[in-house]
Every structure is written in C-alpha cells, then in structure tokens.
Amino acid sequence: MNENTSGKKTLSMALLIVGFVLMLAALYFDITKNYAGLGAMRGMFLVLGALMVLAGIYFIPTVLHHRAIINFIFLFPLIFTFIVTVIIPMFVGIFYSFTDWNGVFYTKMVGIENYQAMFKDPAFMWSLLLTVLFVIVNMIMVNLVAFLLALLCTTKLKGVGFFRASYFLPNLIGGIVLGYIWQFIFSNVLTKILNSPHSALATTKTAFIAIIVVYVWQYAGYIMLIYINGLATVPKDVLEAAQIDGASDIATLFKIKIPMIAATFTICTFLTLTSAFKQFDVNLALTNGGGTVRGFMGKRLSNGTQMIALNIYNTAFARDQYGYAQAKAILFFIILACVSLLQVRISNKREVEM
What we know:
The chain is mainly α.
C-alpha cells in the first residue's frame, strides 16, 4: 500500500467516524429535548455529519473506479431523506410508545402500559372494528365500480375521453374540501330533495354509509385508470380470435380479459386496501368521527364514525397523550403491514392459478 492510498484510507476513516458521531449527537439532543448549548446546533450537526460521511465514502481507496461510490453519492440525498423522515422517526416513535411522552418531553418509562390500555379502551377498539369493516366494504365497492367504469370507458362510445376525465375528476379534490362539500350535500341538498327533516349524517349507521359513498365516489376514478391501462394490454389478436370462435362478451370478459389482467387486480386491491385503512381527511371533514354507539364493551361511545387514523390523531392532538397515541400508531402500522403482505401474497398466488 503506497503512501497516497494510506493517507486516503486514514482521511476516509476519520471523516466517517466524525460524521457518524455528529449524526448520533444530533439524534441524542433531539430525543432528550436538549435545545440549549450544543443542542441548539443539532440541525447543523445532522447535516454536517451527513456530508462528512458522504465525503468519507468518496475517499475510500479502491482499485476499482469510483462508479459505485459515485452512484451512491447521487442516491444519497434520497436515501438520507428517507432515513431522516421515515426510518429514524419510526424507531424514535417505538421508543416514545413506552413512555408517558406529552409531545414535548417524557418523565418516565411506562413499559407496555400504553399497549395494554388501548386494548381496554372501548373507543379505540370500536374504531379498529369500524376501520376493518370500512376496508372490506370499500375494497369490494371501489374495485367493482372502478372496473365497471373501465369497461365502459374502453368501449367505442362517443365521448369516452370526456367520461374518463369526469370520473377521475373527484380524485383531484382534496379530502378536506370534498368532505365539506358532501357535508353540505347531505345536510342541505338531499334533505330538501327527499323532503326529510334529518340529514344522512344524523345517525351512526347512515353516516357510515355516507362516508363509504363519498370514498367510492372519490377513489373509483383513480383505480379506473389503472384498470383501463390493464385492459389495454390485452392483445387484440386474442380478442379477435375469441370473437371469430363465437365467444360472447361475457365469456370473453371472464375467460380472457380478467385472467390476463390478474396483476392489475393485485395492484388495485393493494392500493384500495392501504388507502381505506389510512382514511382520515374525509372522515374528519364529513363527520369528525361523531355518532353514538350504545352497549359496546359495556360503554356508551360518542365516536360512532371515527376511523382508527382519526382516533390516533385525536388521542395525540386533542388529549395530548402522545405516548399513548404513538403506541396506537405502532399497532396500526403492524396491522397494515401484515394485512398488505398477506393480501399481496394471496393475490400473487391467484395470478399463478389464473
């Protein structure tokens, strides 16, 4: 090893060590809420540490060209952002879920008390049950409506482009705005049309149905475009051969089109499942989780239409129980990850069978 290589190795190791120390120090100051003295410079420590690690990687001596290192350098901003905004907060959140964190600081470790409390909380268990029901209904309804719209929009009808744009348009409206628009429709327009003194949002059952209607109306157009793209991949010569053989439109649909776009069904099912689980904005704007439930776990609840995401939000920001809310969020993440992986595995198995 020549002197130049040895010097580069020493410089590289020094930069890597100092960089990691600075990044760990920034993380320590942030977790302990030490914002005085050196803690006030935690942001600078984090950025400077990341740059030093990057420089250390660049100066690693290698007999090969620096292509792999340079590729990593170009990817580093994205990787660093992902680590800082997703990975680190996730592990910090897991830590806070075992404390009595109030959003600013924590005074003690409470162990698994937060996790035990959530399973004894009727309001949370109702939100979890309601979310599961919401996911099942919407996964069926959104995909059914979207697929039917896709079939309609792949026909030779005049103005198909207009219909595609019209069906997709609701997805461009923000959930909060959409919720308030439909709240006005349910409370003022439909009551006059149906000559009813009560809004559909007045009772828990009808309000839950209203949320489903709004969600399907908003999301079906987006899923429709994915189905349209899937249907466009079906070879035309196969469809022509089926037509020559005398296959009906129904037979062509179930025997050719649906099996050949099985991967599209997997994608759409996954998207609708994860989106329905994370439903928040429409739920907040339309009903704010209100509604009465009697006799659930022996309690009378006032969160009859509150989904799990809104329940976690209210626990943290309305009741200032951030540690408890973080424990709920960790459980929510585990449930969503497990259900998503299971759904993809089952769908992939179905693809092979089809």
